[in-house]
Design brief:
54% of the residues lie in helices and 15% in strands.
Length: 713
């Protein structure tokens, strides 16, 4: 990174153990300044809070921080020495600067990546996002307070007109009251608009922040710990919409107005005396009924939510596997499952709707009964001259404020809250899933990692199964060329995923370059480990986006040069959009070979030190395969480790060491020539006794066919 300021920020993030997105500095690419005043310009462009300069020497625990020196420019200071020197990191290298009195120190707050914050409950995520906007929330509450006080003006105006203007014909008083009421209504309109706009804007920002957190959190869940249904997990994330509905401005206004019902009841008591008991009884009765209904519909809303998630999961599965379903006439099977889930959704959702209808009817009866009771009691008090007719009308208006917007909206709010509560519970379960890198660990961030692996007493098994991978001991030196053979289902691909760090073993230890792999930051691992799965999937976007996924842009020349070496250049040149070719979800529209070439090109652009390839040429034609193998031979340097799963002799010829995996264990491990010679002995006694791959012969297509117990597999 040539720019001193951006390089210093990257060093600061590394020293503070904070992950930076690959594109974190893209918004500042057009800024070409490195003076002291440029830091705030960069922060503004990136979207961060401005840096705070230190007026006094910081305390020891506040290091590291950014530093600008008149003679040396920008860097990251780790400590201040006693002899007017600074211990500084610049361009990832430690150095010492003299004349510390010429330096200016800055504290820069680097936001934690979405999903890295620590929360025990999903509700805490929303709470934290709301509290970060407490100033805006306070203004909205203040506006609500004023709006509800202005609401009293209409009732007071009506009372004055009936009690003073009409009996005496005091029309001058009427005009004064009317003008005052209209001015108050103007304020009311202005405050309502400001409050709505303020809350809607903050709601959008809260939604964006929370959605980003949960999306990142779901992406950080360990692959081996993910729920079996992708569609179901996606539906759990859709539960954010239920929580968002309860955070809409209308719902917030209704909840904010509830406490003011007590104010209106108090004013009714001041104007009408004992008739306030009608509303004082009706309002808590309505709240009690709301609490009872909430308890009654809770279980059904949870069932409806679970069944709805299953239904959406089935829909995702059906669309994703449409080719298989059509080829095997599986539409009726999927349709029967769909109809069954629909019935379950309706069975659990219908009681909620019935209860909502009953709640609406009951609250309507409470409203009307309270109004009738207030008017009847007030009429008797008017007859006895204990209150005026104007006061009775004013009390009826205030009662409408309690009955109407507050009690009338309770049924809908109950249902929304019940679904939101169920969604929060599902999001809580997602937060309980283990992550690739736990948020409570201070992870290692070495500048470089060698492709050296050590596995000791490693045991991995998929959830709910006893089979998996067992490796008592394995040493792989940097720069080795290793091939892995084995039958179908023998555990080769799982073994590769464990070595890549994508799957975490339940037992044992994996070291990369003598460091515990689980203690190395995930972004550092991904920079140094290149993994190509057997079924490489692309993401929706352009071909360029997929080639640069998680990588800094090296420029079109570098991309096209590597594409030429892997054979991907033919697809680029044959399409009118070239690198801007639109890729559908999962890479649909491209052949399996084209997807593999895209993944291989991206990995070679990343230049990892450990290369893990799972059947990389299984979908390639002979000419393209030869080109890829030649490119790999040229690209591999002595310090790059290659581990490749294959059944093809052409790839076996690239390696110096062969392993045979069977039943999740390494049955044979040795020099490639010796292992191949041993495999050519059909009745190899040690392997036959262990029921492990005992023989292999070259097929006409140049593939290795493994046998278990003398039978072809």
């Amino acid at each position: 990174m040539a720019n001193e300021i951006l390089s210093a920020i990257a060093d600061l993030a590394r020293l503070r153990r904070i992950d930076l997105r690959p594109e974190w500095a893209d918004a500042a690419d057009d800024i070409d300044r490195e003076d002291e005043d440029a830091l705030d310009t960069y922060c503004e462009a990136i979207g961060w809070a401005p840096a705070s300069p230190y007026e006094e020497d910081p305390r020891a625990h506040e290091f590291p921080m950014l530093v600008f020196h008149a003679d040396n420019g920008w860097g990251v200071v780790e400590r201040i020495e006693n002899d007017n020197r600074l211990q500084v990191v610049k361009h990832a290298m430690s150095t010492t600067w003299t004349e510390a009195d010429k330096a200016r120190l800055y504290d820069l707050i680097i936001p934690l990546p979405a999903g890295k914050q620590r929360f025990e409950k999903a509700f805490d995520v929303f709470k934290a996002a709301i509290l970060r906007r407490k100033n805006a929330i306070f203004l909205a509450v203040l506006a609500t307070f004023v709006v509800n006080f202005i609401a009293l003006i209409t009732s007071i105006y009506t009372m004055q007109v009936y009690d003073r203007v009409v009996p005496r014909g005091a029309f001058s008083t009427l005009w004064v009251l009317s003008v005052g009421a209209m001015v108050a209504l103007g304020f009311d309109f202005t405050l309502r608009v400001i409050r709505a706009n303020l809350l809607e804007r903050e709601s959008v920002e809260i939604d964006s922040e929370v959605s980003e957190f949960f999306f990142s959190r779901s992406a950080d869940v360990r692959l081996d710990a993910r729920p079996p249904g992708i569609g179901t997990m996606a539906s759990q994330l859709r539960g954010l919409e239920q929580v968002r509905s309860i955070m809409s401005s209308s719902a917030i206004f209704a909840l904010a107005d509830l406490p003011f019902a007590l104010l209106f009841i108090f004013v009714i008591a001041q104007l009408g005396g004992s008739i306030a008991f009608v509303m004082a009884i009706a309002f808590p009765v309505a709240l009690l009924m709301a609490f009872i209904f909430a308890r009654l519909i809770r279980r059904n809303t949870e069932k409806a939510q679970v069944n709805g998630n299953k239904k959406n999961g089935l829909l995702v599965e059906a669309l994703d596997a449409a080719e298989t379903i059509k080829a095997n006439r599986g539409q009726w099977y999927l349709l029967s499952r769909w109809n069954e889930l629909l019935e379950q959704v309706h069975d659990s959702d219908l009681p909620v709707k019935k209860m909502q209808a009953k709640a609406g009817a009951i609250f309507g009866v409470i409203q009307q009964s309270a109004y009738i009771g207030l008017i009847a009691w007030g009429a008797m008090r008017v007859y006895e001259n204990e209150m005026s007719i104007g006061a009775l009308i004013a009390c009826s208006i205030l009662a409408g404020r309690v009955n109407g917007p507050l009690i009338a909206q309770l049924p809908n709010l109950l249902v929304q809250w019940s679904y939101a509560r169920s969604s929060l519970g599902m999001l809580d379960k997602m937060l309980e899933l283990p992550l690739d890198t736990p948020t409570d660990l201070d992870l290692l961030r070495p500048n470089r990692l060698a492709g050296q692996l050590s596995l000791k007493d490693v045991v991995f098994a998929y959830t709910g199964t006893a089979s998996g991978v067992v490796v008592p001991k394995l040493e792989i030196a940097a720069g080795e060329r290793i091939g892995i053979l084995g039958g179908v289902g023998s555990g080769k691909s799982t073994f590769l995923k464990v070595m890549s760090g994508l799957y975490k073993p339940q037992e044992g230890q994996i070291l990369i370059d003598k460091l515990e792999m689980s203690q190395v930051a995930d972004d550092v691992l991904r920079d140094h480990i290149g993994y190509l799965p057997q079924d490489y999937r692309l993401v929706n976007g352009s071909l360029r986006d997929n080639l640069l996924l998680g990588l800094p842009d090296p420029g079109d020349d570098a991309i096209l040069e590597m594409a030429q070496k892997t054979g991907l250049a033919n697809m680029i040149s044959n399409h009118p959009r070239g690198l801007d070719l639109e890729i559908s979800e999962g890479g649909r529209g491209l052949s399996g070979g084209q997807r593999v070439l895209t993944g291989l090109t991206r990995i070679l652009l990343a230049k990892p030190k450990l290369l893990l390839l799972d059947e990389p040429t299984s979908n390639l034609d002979i000419d393209t395969e030869a080109l890829v193998l030649r490119t790999l031979q040229e690209w591999l340097t002595p310090d790059v480790t290659l581990i490749i799963v294959t059944h093809k002799l052409q790839l076996v010829n690239m390696v110096k060491r062969l392993m045979i995996v069977a039943n999740g264990e390494i049955a044979v491990d040795g020099p490639a020539a010796e292992v191949m010679k041993r495999l050519q002995q059909p009745n190899s006694k040690p392997l036959a006794q262990q029921q492990q791959p005992a023989a292999a012969t070259g097929s006409s297509q140049g593939e290795i066919t493994t046998k278990i117990g003398g039978r072809k597999k």
